[in-house]
Amino acid sequence: MPVGFGRLFAYAWIKHGAIPTGCDAGAIDMGEEGVTELRLDPAVGLCSACLHAERVVSGRGSVFWFCGYSRIETRYLKYPPLPVLNCSAFEPGRSA
After folding, report:
1. Which one, of 77, 20, 16, 85, lies nearest residue 48 by Cα?
2. 54-70 pLDDT, tens per residue?
3. 34 near 26, Cβ under 8 Å?
């Protein structure tokens, strides 16, 4: 992982009041006051912790990430190229 990789997600963490503690295994921990920890899979990026994302596994075992927001807003790709480092539709809420 590049040295500055974590800095790319700083805006998302600050914007959503999350405290960055790592980039392993996308997960969200909910505390009494909302999101307290946001961890992202570096190979997937923001989609690994996004409310709109759906993990899709093909019959051959390939894994894709479907953007559910693309159903609402057509300017978003159904299957964005990974990792997604910046997305205006990102909403924390997915627990991997």
Report:
1. 85
2. 999 999 999 999 999 99
3. no
